[in-house]
Amino acid sequence: MKKRLLIGVVGLLVAGSMFGRNEATERYTDYIDDTYGERVDVDVSQDWKLTGYKATFELERQPLRGTYSAWTYGDGTIHDDVMPTYWVKEAETTLHDRLVTANVLSRTETVRANVPVDAVRMRDVNRRQPTSVFELNPETFLDVSVMLHEAWNDTVAQKQRVLDIIRLLEDDVTSIHFSFDGTPNEDDDFTERYLNVSRTSQSGDPSFDSLQTIDDLNRHDRLYGFDETTFITEYRFDGTEYED
What we know:
Keywords: Signal
Strand content: 15-25%
Number of strands: 10
């Protein structure tokens, strides 16, 4: 008798789970169709964080072609990462091409962008004909990383390159994270050096305006990196550790 009851309870749980999954699949499918105009296959799985179901799906039409995710909030509203993902790709491609065209970055060097999901005015975008991230006041929320395939050598040419990149990007971003890595395809965090520059000075990092000349950079004279004993170590441009 107990065995039959147990089988019955498990059967009800499975049936309930399947019903919930099927309902979620239908809701996500309709949402994607209504929002992006594509009737796509949706892979639905349990979302343990929001105690519901999340979805993975692929859009086929350009310019949004790619793989994305969607999830349901507690109030029943569905959200996705389509536009943030699209804008990240657009920002990275646009800024990378700008730097390469200006001959301050090679094609193999990298620009990475960060666009928060809740970026200003994101909900006002026509998603079927997406606007550019650069029409959304990117200077208020767009952070970028520029990964240079060279070790920091404290040279005038290297510092001029940093200044040139700042001048080319400062009107469109809120911060720039420079990474100096002589061997970019190897796991060598202990030898990489980093420099942060922001629209406004933050936590000791210089502002765009404060770095106009090589002398300005020399007065800053501070990089940071990782080592085996502390999480972050500060360095002078000559490679010696910075001590307050």
